[in-house]
């Protein structure tokens, strides 16, 4: 079991923040904003309300996920293991778990690919940060 006192809490915070940076690009007009909005039937007006609560809660959730990933990876890791563990957690647990839910909710493959892809990239980046930063 990982000794939680040995974890780098600054790395965990930065890893959680990295999910916002990845999401900022992922869900921007540069990449998938239009497709994501279309698949969710969102308009620009739909996305204007409640942003503070959404972003604040999302950061708390990302922080918990980064902590959980760091505890899984352990304090004596390296970037290679961190990247691999992050990818496997993002794809093998998060993306595929979302896939099961999306099937039953009859959501589109395209929406799953956008959202699951974000999670895989975010977890991989978080794993790399936690793995390299002791």
Please report the distance between the alpha carbons of the first and last residues. Answer: 17 Å
How many domains, in number, for the residues? 1
Overall structural class, as computed from helix and strand content, comes to mainly alpha
Order of helices and strands, N to C? HHHHH
| Rg, Cα atoms, Å | 16 Å
Number of H- or I-type helical stretches: 5
Uncertain residue ranges: none
Mean model confidence by pLDDT: 96
What quaternary form is this?
A: single chain
Q: Say how many strands there are.
A: 0
Large-scale geometry: globular
Helical content, roughly? Answer: over 70%
Largest sheet: none
* Beta-strand percent range: under 5%
Characterize the structure shown.
- This protein is an all-alpha fold.
- Helices cover 75% and strands 0% of the residues.
- The chain has one domain (4-132).
- It has helices spanning 9-26, 33-40, 51-73, 79-105, 109-132.
- Helix 1 runs antiparallel to helix 5, helix 2 (33-40) packs across helix 5 (109-132) and helix 4 (79-105) packs antiparallel against helix 5.
- The longest helix is centred in the last third of the chain and has 27 residues, at 79-105.
């Amino acid at each position: 079991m990982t000794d939680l006192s040995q974890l780098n809490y600054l790395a965990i915070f930065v890893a959680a923040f990295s999910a916002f940076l990845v999401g900022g690009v992922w869900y921007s007009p540069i990449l998938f904003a239009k497709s994501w909005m279309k698949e969710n039937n969102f308009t620009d007006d739909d996305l204007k309300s409640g942003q503070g609560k959404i972003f604040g809660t999302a950061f708390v959730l990302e922080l918990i996920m980064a902590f959980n990933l760091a505890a899984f990876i352990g304090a004596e890791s390296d970037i290679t293991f961190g990247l691999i563990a992050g990818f496997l957690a993002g794809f093998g647990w998060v993306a595929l778990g979302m896939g099961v839910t999306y099937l039953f909710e009859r959501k589109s493959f395209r929406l799953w690919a956008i959202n699951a892809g974000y999670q895989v990239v975010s977890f991989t980046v978080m794993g790399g940060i936690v793995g390299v930063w002791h």
